[in-house]
Design brief:
By secondary structure, the chain is an alpha/beta fold. The chain has two domains: 4-224, Aspartate Aminotransferase, domain 2, CATH 3.40.640.10; 226-285, no CATH class. It has eleven helices and ten strands. Helix 1 (4-15) packs across helix 10 and helix 3 (28-48) packs across helix 10. It is globular, with a radius of gyration of 19 Å.
Length: 293
C-alpha cells in the first residue's frame, strides 16, 4: 500500500546519507538510533494512541525487518514456553519457525507467548475476546503494522483497552502498511526495560540492532503525521465506496485495509472466492488507491 508521501520520505532519507554517515553506521549511527530515532518513534506512537500509551520506559531494538524480529522471538519462545496465535490472525507468525508443533491456533494461551496483529488481520478489529487472550498470557507479541489505518478515535480506544497488556508486550513496528514503508522496512521493536525478555535476549537483541535499517528509520522521521492521517481518511472513504459499488456490507469501525465476512452458505460459495476463506471467514485485503475506484 505505497503512498506518494512514503516515496517522498524515502527520497529525503537517501539525500541525507553521505560517506561519513555510512562509515559510522555502527558507532555514531547506533547512537543516533537510540538517542534520536527511538525517542521520536515512541512519541509518534504515543500520539497515534491519543495519549493512551506511555512509552517512556520502553527501549528500542531492531532487525532487518519486522518479520525478522518476530521470527526470532517466535523461534526462541516456541520450544520453551510455546506460542499461541489467535485463530484466523496472521499466518506469518508461524510460517518462519522450525517448531510448528509448538505453535497453536487457540483462544487459550496458557503459559505461551500470545501473538496478535493490532488490529487483527482476521477482521481488522481488536475484539474483546482478543484483548482477553492477550491479558491471559504471561507475555505478548503485538504486530502494530496496521494500527495507523484505524481512525483516531478507534486508535485511542484500542490502545486504552490494551494499556494493562503493554508492560508485558513486545511491540513490533514496521508500518509497511500503516505508513507505506514497504521498500525498506522499519523492523523495530519496543519493549519495557523491565520485561524479562530484555535480560533473556540481551545479547541477540544488541547484535540484531547493530544492523538496523537506517534508510527506513530516516524515512519514518521524514513522514508528515498530519498528511498521513488525511491520506488514511481518503483511503477509508475509498474502501467504503468500493464495497458499496459491489453490494458488499461495510462497517465504520476497524481497519479499512481488512474487511471480513462470515460465510453463511459455504456449500454455494463460488469457487473463485474459496482462496479467501479460512475458518468460515472470507477476508478481503484492500489496498485503496484514491481517488475513487
Amino acid at each position: 500500500m505505497a503512498t506518494p508521501l512514503a516515496a517522498s520520505a524515502y527520497r529525503a532519507a537517501v539525500e541525507g546519507l553521505d560517506a561519513d554517515v555510512l562509515s559510522q553506521h555502527y558507532t555514531a549511527g547506533l547512537a543516533w538510533f537510540h538517542d534520536t530515532f527511538a525517542p521520536a518513534l515512541k512519541r509518534r506512537i504515543e500520539a497515534l494512541s491519543g495519549g493512551a500509551w506511555d512509552l517512556r520506559d520502553f527501549v528500542a531494538i531492531a532487525a532487518g525487518s519486522d518479520v525478522d524480529l518476530m521470527t526470532h522471538l517466535v523461534e526462541a519462545a516456541a520450544p520453551r514456553e510455546g506460542v499461541a496465535l489467535w485463530p484466523g490472525d496472521w499466518w506469518g507468525f508461524r510460517v518462519g519457525s522450525t517448531h510448528p508443533d509448538r505453535i497453536a491456533w487457540t483462544r487459550e494461551p496458557g503459559s505461551a507467548l500470545a501473538c496478535l496483529c493490532l488490529p487483527s488481520v482476521r477482521n481488522g478489529h481488536l475484539t474483546e475476546g482478543m484483548a482477553a487472550f492477550l491479558e491471559a498470557a504471561p507475555a505478548a507479541l503485538l504486530n502494530i503494522n496496521l494500527y495507523p489505518t484505524l481512525s483516531p478515535g478507534e486508535r485511542r480506544a484500542t490502545a486504552a483497552r490494551l494499556a494493562s497488556v503493554l508492560p508485558k508486550a513486545v511491540l513490533s513496528v514496521s508500518f509497511s502498511r500503516g505508513f507505506g514503508l514497504t521498500a525498506s522496512q522499519l523492523g523495530v521493536g519496543l519493549v519495557h526495560r523491565d520485561h524479562p525478555f530484555c535480560a533473556r535476549f540481551q545479547t541477540p537483541w544488541a547484535w540484531h540492532t547493530y544492523f538496523y535499517n537506517a534508510i527506513a528509520a530516516r524515512a519514518f522521521l521524514a513522514l508528515d503525521a498530519d498528511a498521513m492521517d488525511a491520506d488514511h481518511a481518503a483511503r477509508r472513504a475509498w474502501a467504503a465506496r468500493w464495497l458499496a459499488q459491489r453490494g458488499l456490507p461495510d462497517v465504520a469501525s476497524g481497519s479499512y485495509y481488512v474487511r471480513s465476512f462470515r460465510i453463511t452458505d459455504p456449500q454455494n460459495l463460488p469457487e473463485r472466492l474459496s482462496p479467501l476463506v479460512r475458518d468460515e471467514i472470507a477476508r478481503l485485503c484492500l489496498k485503496p488507491t484514491p481517488p475513487a475506484p
